[in-house]
Every structure is written in C-alpha cells, then in structure tokens.
Amino acid sequence: MERVTLSSEGPGYQALEFHTPVFTSDGFFSCVATLTEDGDESSVDVEMIEPYRSDMLGFFEEMAVESSGWPGTKEWRSEFATLRVTAVNGGGGNVSLAVTAWWPPDYEETRQLGLSLPAGELKELASKVRVFLDLPHGERFRAVVSEP
What is the mean pLDDT of residues 71-84? Predict the structure, then answer.
C-alpha cells in the first residue's frame, strides 16, 4: 500500500496522509506525512527503525480494539519526534485526533491539525496501517518502572 489517509468529517477538508514509504535492507523505514487543511499542505519526513514502526502500528491497533471508547488520551510519536498524534475517544462514536508536526533541525516550526474520525472505521484504518508499514502486528512501547 502506497498511502494511508486519515480525513476528517465536517466542513473543509482536513487530512493526515502517510505516503512514499521506503524500506531499506538494514530495517530502516521512512515515509512522508502530509497535513492538509483547506488546500494548505505541509509535509514532514518520518524516519523509523522497526521498533518505532511497531509502536506506530500498535497505536492504531489499540485504538481499533478500544473503538467503543477509552479514558484519557492515547499518544504516538515518531522516532525523531517530527510527528505526534494524540487521540481521544469518549465513547460518542467519533475519535478526535490532534496532529502536530515539527521540522528539524531546530524543531521550532510546527503545524497542528485536528481530525475527527468515525470510531467504526478504526479497524479498517489499523489494517491499512499494517499493510503500509509491512508488519504482521504492532506492539506499543511500555513504560519501564524501576524499583529504588
């Protein structure tokens, strides 16, 4: 699959699109993430080794499993922090996504975008992300708790 598009319901066209995937023989992956709002486009490079690809897929799979709603927020960040997606699903049938992109080298320039997706489409979205990332399943990073 060459692209995955998340587009918002409502007035005006808003979308986050992952496209132009590149896989290298040493396990490195890159793609382009394009944020679109009413015809204004900004693109940022997203580069990740396999554990970060797995975390990205895990984020979308986790939302799909919990599509009826979850408390608080879920968050995913790309390996070099060029892209962050935060999701909220209070159980009302839609998922609100807040997307933020940063551009290296100073990460001061940002672009933000809000999307609203039907919760019923999360399983299909996770399946598309799975194919796009060329992984059989994802796994979220887990917080490491150290004992004193």
Answer: 96
pLDDT score recorded for residue 9: 67
Q: What is the mean pLDDT of residues 113-124?
A: 96
DSSP structure string for the chain: --EEEEE--SSS-EEEEEEEEEE-TTS-EEEEEEEEETTEEEEEEEEE-HHHHHHHHHHHHHHHHTTT--SSEEEEE-TTSSEEEEEE--SSSEEEEEEEEE-TTT---EEEEEEEEEGGGHHHHHHHHHHHHT-S------------
Contact 138, 61 (CB under 8 A): yes
DSSP letter (8 states) at residue 126? H
pLDDT tens-digit map of 29-66: 999 999 999 889 999 999 999 999 999 999 999 999 99
Three-class SS of 55-68: HHHHHHHHHHHCCC
CATH architecture of the region 3-133? Roll (2.30)
Name the residue among 128, 119, 112, 145 with its Cα closest to residue 56.
Answer: 128
